[in-house]
Amino acid sequence: MDLKLKDSNVLITGSSSGIGKAAAIAFGAEGANVGVTYHANRDGAEETAEKVRETGGQALVLHYDLADADSIRSSLESAKKEWGMLNVLVNNAAPMEASGPTGQLFEDVPLKNWEEMLRKASKVSH
Fold it and tell me: pLDDT tens digits for 75-85?
């Protein structure tokens, strides 16, 4: 399938495993340049990057700590330095494991927690 993403510059947060990894590989298969980010799982990010390359894309592995504004800025700056600009951002990272930070399921996390996370993230972009 040609989604016209060849040579697009894509940053996918939380792409060392799961949905983020699958998205990175899919963008790679379309010929995109993919920023593969990780918080703690560098080996997973390196594996994702290799799969992106195997499918025809380019990959850049970046450390990305959602709780650290400087880390986020650094990731964005590294991607922009490498490619000049970003065309696509897939915001897949969330500050929780599969069962949530307090043992809650994803769908049971209170709305106020999501709102707080989004407020913090919007401060980084300004």
Answer: 999 999 999 99
pLDDT digits (tens, 9 = 90+) for 62-98: 999 887 889 889 999 999 999 999 999 998 887 654 4
CA angle 58, 63, 65 (to 5 degrees): 135
CA angle 69, 97, 70 (to 5 degrees): 10
CA distance 126 to 120: 11
The distance in angstroms from the start CA to the end CA of the chain is 36
Give the Cβ contact number of residue 36 at 10 Å.
Answer: 32
Partners of 38 in the β-ladder = 63
Q: Cβ contacts of residue 32 below 8 Å, gap of 6+?
A: 5, 6, 7, 8, 9, 10, 57, 58, 88
The DSSP bridge partners found for residue 12 are 36, 90
Say which amino acid occupies 58: Q
d(CA 113, CA 4): 36
